Known about the structure:
The structure is a homodimer.
Chain A lengths: L13 H9 L4 H10 L1 E6 L4 E3 L7 E7 L2 E6 L5 E7 L7 H5 L8 E4 L3 E7 H10 L1 H25 L4 H18 L6 E2 L3 H8 L3 H13 L10 E2 L3 H8 L12 H4 L9
Antiparallel strand pairs in A: 1-7, 2-6, 3-7, 4-5, 4-6, 8-9
Helix pairs in contact in A: 4-5, 6-8, 6-9, 7-8
Chain A binds a DNA duplex (30 and 30 nucleotides) through helix 8.
Amino acid sequence: MVGLPNPIGRNSLVPLVLKFRTLGLENEELEIVASLVKDKGRVRAGLDIIGAGNSAKHLTLLLMGVACWYKRLEDGGRQIYTFQYAGDFCDFYRYVLPERDHSVAVQALTDCSIAIIDYRDLEQALTRFPKLGLAFWRASMLDASIFRERLLNGSHRPALQRLANLLCEQLARREAIGINSAVIPLTQIDLADAAGLSVVHLNRTIQALRSLGVLAKNGHTIEVIDRKHLVNIAKFDGRYLNMPQLLSKWEIRIDSSIM
Amino acid sequence: MVGLPNPIGRNSLVPLVLKFRTLGLENEELEIVASLVKDKGRVRAGLDIIGAGNSAKHLTLLLMGVACWYKRLEDGGRQIYTFQYAGDFCDFYRYVLPERDHSVAVQALTDCSIAIIDYRDLEQALTRFPKLGLAFWRASMLDASIFRERLLNGSHRPALQRLANLLCEQLARREAIGINSAVIPLTQIDLADAAGLSVVHLNRTIQALRSLGVLAKNGHTIEVIDRKHLVNIAKFDGRYLNMPQLLSKWEIRIDSSIM
DNA sequence: CGGCGGCTTGATTCGAGTCAAGAACCGTGG
DNA sequence: CCACGGTTCTTGACTCGAATCAAGCCGCCG
C-alpha cells in the first residue's frame, strides 16, 4: 500500500498537502494520502492526460503544470469546464461513477507532470481511514462549486466581466498552491474556450483590459498588473473556492469608487 | 438512529430508492438509508427550502414536487443551476463543506414535501456502512455532471437547442422517478432563469417549438407532444444522467432525417 | 370586480459571432 | 544563421441572435 516503487520528491506534493489541509485533514492523514501517490511522468502541452472513456485502475493527480477538463463538441469546438493545477485530481469522476461513459477528458495546456494513486491502494486507505473519504468527497464538491461559478459566469455577464472573473479565479487558485506570478500561462484560445467567447472577441476583451491598465501591454502573455481593478471589474467573490488562507485577499469587493 | 418518530409512507421514498439503486446500493443498504429519513412537512411554491447560509444539522431530501438550486444575482436576477425532483438531496454541499459561506439556495417551484436526515444519524450510518459514503459521493458527483451539462448547454448553443436540451433533461429525470406526464410544471420564468435566456426570448423560443409541433399549443402549460423531434433538436445525449434503465430511450440520437 | 403574476407581441439596440486577411512569434531543419 | 510552416494574436467589416423597453393580454385569486 505504500508508494515505495516510485518515490516522489516532497516538494511535488506540497500543493496536494496544502489543498487537503484546507479540506480538513490532519498531519497523519496527510502523510497517508501522500504515501499513496506514485510518480507517473510527464505529459507535453497539448496532449490528453485523461482521454474520454471509462476504464481506469488509478486516480490521476497533477503535480505540475496547467491542465483543463474539457469536452469536444459536435462542431469540433472545445468546451473547457475548468482549469486544473498542481494538487488537483483529474479523474475522480471515473472512480466514483465508473460505469458511465464519460465524454469528459483532461488535456495538458502546458507541459505537466503527473502522478497516480492505484484504486487498490485508495480503497484500502479509505476503509482504514474513513476520514479520507470525506476529504475526497469534499475535493470533488469543490470542483462542482467551480462548475457552478463558471455556469453563473457564462450566463448573463458581459465579456469584460466574464474574462475578469475567470482570470481572478486562476490567480487565486495559483496563489493557493504557492504560485504568485502575475502571468497566467494560458493562450487566448484556452481562455476563449473556457469563457465561452470566440477567440476574436476574447482578444478584443483582453485589449480592453490592457487599455484599462489591468493587463500588461506586452502581447503574447497575459500578465495582471492591477489586481484590485480586475477584482472590481469581475465583482469577484472567491469564497466558493474554499481557501481560508486567501480569503482576506479575495473575498472582499473593493469599493466601487475605482470603476 | 432509526426514523421512528416520524415514519414516512413507503411510497414517498420510492424515488430515493430508485435513485440509490442505480448508484450501486443493494437492498439492505437501501433499507438503512430509508430508515434514516424523517418527515419534515411541506413547502409552498415560491418559498425557499434551503436559504443561503451555512448552518444546518440535517440533510434535506425532496419527497415531492419540483425545486431548484439557484443564486440571486447582484442585479436581482436569479440564476438557476439545476432543477430537483423527488429523491434528490438539496443540501449535500452544506454537509460536505460546512465552513463555506454558501450563497446557493434552494427554492420550491411547485408545492413540495420534504424530509430530513439528521447529520448525527447520517454519520453513524456512514461509519457503520462505508458503502453508503460512496453512494452519497456518487449522488453529488451526478449533480456535478448535470452542472457540466448545463454549462455546456449555456455556451455556444442557440436558444432553440438550449431550451430543447433543458426540456429533455427534465423529461428524462422525471421518468426516472416514475413521472411519465409530458407536462413540465415550470413557468417560463423558471425555464428562462435556467437556460440563461431572457423571458421574452424564451417565450419566443417556446413558440418556435410549438409551431414545430414539438410542444402543445395550449398556452400556460409546457407539454411535450413530439419527444423524438425534441431530442433531435436538442441533440440530447442523456448518458450524463446515469440512468441505465432509461438509456435505450434517451441515449441514442434519432437519425437526422427527421429534422 | 380589481389586481397581480405570468404570458405574448412589436420595435429597437447592441454585444458577440463570423469571415477574412494580415502580423508576430516559435520551433525546426537546411 | 536564416528560411519555413504552423500556431497564436490582431484588426476590420459585416451579420445576427438575443437583450431590452414598452405595452397589452390572459387567467387566477382574493
